[in-house]
From TrEMBL:
Bound cofactor: record note: Binds 1 Fe(2+) ion.
Gene that this polypeptide is encoded by: def
Presence of the UniProt keyword Iron in the record: yes
Source organism, top-level taxon: Bacteria
Record key words, sorted: Hydrolase, Iron, Metal-binding, Protein biosynthesis
EC number: 3.5.1.88
Protein's organism: Paenimyroides marinum
Family label: Belongs to the polypeptide deformylase family.
GO BP, one annotated term: translation
Protein name: Peptide deformylase
Residues binding Fe cation: 105, 147, 151
Length: 195
């Protein structure tokens, strides 16, 4: 089922999310719905707060990066097949020299800015079967994971841009709050007129 994606300004996007147990109601169905919602919106990641749930859950599917001819073949091949569910994730390490990439977010349509992140991470998480993993990721996979991880910490990519860039995007962000944007996917806005 395709779920509405929560727009910028909704308080759920600012909550530090709660851990869940394997008994969380209809967890498998929720995870499938999140993948369906992400795919429908042509995203590469989606966190539970983006569908209105303040829980430590996010999904990543980097297949679209697999077509990027600018990436090294080894990384492109990995990204073309990388799909993963992260429950109760905890980033243990972020290492390397920060690099910029132009990021966007399904909750913030029409806004893209360069964000600096470290290229290598070590993350501990549970998968959809509640098996625990500790893994290292690098490059674009690490970046997508860091972006989604920020969501479960109540952080948005717009928090990581300069004051000037925030000022330049303020009207766009206000338009999202008021529901004056029209992405190609279902959204829920905090202050849409006529609610």
């Amino acid at each position: 089922m395709i779920l509405p994606i929560v727009g910028y300004g909704d308080p759920v996007l600012r909550k530090e999310c709660e851990e869940i147990t394997k008994d969380y109601p209809q967890l498998k169905e929720l995870i499938q719905n999140m993948y369906d919602t992400m795919d429908n919106a042509y995203g590469v990641g989606l966190a539970a707060p983006q569908v209105g749930l303040p829980i430590r859950l996010f999904v990543v599917d980097t297949k679209p990066f697999g077509d990027d001819e600018d990436l090294p073949k080894k990384e492109r091949d990995f990204l073309a097949t990388f799909s993963c569910t992260f429950i109760n994730a905890k980033i243990l390490k972020e290492e390397g020299e920060e690099w910029a990439f132009n990021e966007g977010c399904l909750s913030i349509p029409g806004v893209r800015e360069d964000v600096y992140r470290k290229p290598n991470i070590t993350i501990e998480y549970y998968d959809e079967d509640f098996k625990k993993h500790t893994k290292e990721f690098s490059g674009y996979a690490a970046r997508v994971i860091q972006h989604e991880y920020d969501h479960i910490e109540g952080v948005l990519f717009t928090d990581k841009i300069s004051t000037l860039k925030k000022k330049l995007n303020s009207k766009r962000l206000q338009n999202i709050i008021e529901g004056k944007v029209f992405p190609d996917y279902k959204m829920k806005f905090i202050n849409k007129k006529g609610r």
